[in-house]
Each structure stands twice: as structure tokens, then as C-alpha cells.
Amino acid sequence: MKYKIILASASRRRSKILKECGIAHKVAVSDACEKINCKKGARFNVVHNARAKAEKIADRYKDGFVIGADTLVLLGKQLIGKPKTKSEAVVFLKAFSGKTLLVYTGLCVIDVKRGTSVTAADVSRVGVRKLSPKEIDAFVKIAGPHDKAGGFSIEGPGTFIFDNISGSFYNILGLPMMKLDHLFRELGVDLMRFAIENAP
Fold first, then answer.
1. pLDDT category, 117, cuts 50, 70, 90?
2. Which residues are catalytic?
3. Domain boundaries, position 90
């Protein structure tokens, strides 16, 4: 059976992960506003935002499965989203230098036809080595990671400064695939079988 899967995200990295896993999908960018409620925990915020993104897109379709995702970084008690400017990305990296971060990703999958949804959140730990101001400036110039939570990526140049990962690597990239597979199974869909049946 072929399932229509829609990714409610502007993240090229999330789309790339699905493609690498053989999951054929359509990208539909959600204009839902990403909010951070500082009175709530990281899990609440990422799940809330993931659901808001998915619901916004689900309203446009009559069937299929819509995936919403949202990622935040937790440093101590501070919740950190995407930097608004290059300068803010530098500020974030200065704060992260020599610290251990928690990265949370919330997921929401909606079965549009049945009107049912499932949600979950994953968390991973990542260490950041001590960085000099010159290294931070160089990293921001090279990576330009302004569209990612915390303003960083652990891929590419990020491999020089991020290490000691505990938990899902793909969670830090913004789409924890094992957790996503569990959600689809709750809705009666086997993602691996879907990939095989839709292989070119």
C-alpha cells in the first residue's frame, strides 16, 4: 500500500534525512509560529510547536500523513531556538563553549483521513569543546547555521567542535528516525515497508 507523506517543515536537512531513509515525501512549509513558553519545559514546547506545524498543513489535505517537527536546545534552564541574526548565533556559541547541551526534538504525525494524531519527544546530549572568539567567528562564517536550533550543526565544520554525543544522532539533526518510526507504527504504518514498496 502506498502512503502519501507530507513533511510540514522548511528544513532541508529533515527532508534530506527522509530521502536518505528511502521515504518518499512532499514538503509543505508550515507558516505556524514557533513559540517558546519559558514557564513550560523543553518537551512541552517542542511537542506543542510540532503539533502546530502539522495541524496547519493537515488542514490542506484530505488524506495522507503529515509530519511536524520542532527542535530546541536547553542550556541549563535556558531554552534556545534559532538565532535571528549572525550576531545572535555568535552569542549562542559563546554561551555553549565548554558546556554540555541537551537537544530536544518534538514530533507530531497526523493521519489526515482518520483525523488522529500521535506525538513524542526525544532528547540527546552533546558536548561542546572550549572555543576561542576567533574559532566562533570562523565557525559562523563557514557554517552559516542560522536556520537551526542553537545556531549550530554537528555536521560538516561542526565535527570539529561538537562531540560526546549521547542519544539519537538524528535527533540532534532535527528528525529522530527511530522515534518517528514508532509514531508511524502507532498509526498502523511500517516506514521500512513503505520505503521498500516505493523504491525506484
1. very high
2. 70
3. 5-197
In this predicted structure, what is the pLDDT of residue 1? Answer: 46
Instruction: Please name every residue paired with 101 in a beta bridge, in sequence order, or none if there are none.
Output: 126
Measured CA to CA, the distance from residue 55 to residue 174 in angstroms comes to 19
Q: What is the CA radius of gyration of the chain?
A: 17
Query: φ, ψ for residue 143 (rounded to 5)?
Result: -85, -35
Nine-digit cell string for 114: 482518520
Express each pLDDT in 25-59 by its tens digit: 999 998 888 888 888 999 999 999 999 999 999 99
Q: Number of folded domains in the chain?
A: 1
- Compute the distance between CA of residue 138 and CA of residue 131 in angstroms, rounded to an integer: 11
Residues 16-34 pLDDT 10s: 999 999 999 999 998 888 8
Q: Which three cell numbers stand for residue 54?
A: 502539522
Nearest to 9 by CA among 64, 67, 59: 67
- Among 102, 104, 82, 101, which Cα is nearest to 91's? 82
User: Residue 110 pairs with which residues in a beta bridge?
Assistant: 66, 117
61: domain CATH number is 3.90.950.10
- Can you tell me the distance from the alpha carbon of 122 to that of 172, in angstroms, rounded to the nearest whole number? 9
> Which of 112, 123, 122, 104 is closest to 28 using CA atoms?
112
Residue 94 pLDDT greater than 50, yes or no: yes
Collapse the DSSP code of 173 into the 3-class scheme (helix H, G, I; strand E, B; otherwise coil) and give the result.
Answer: helix
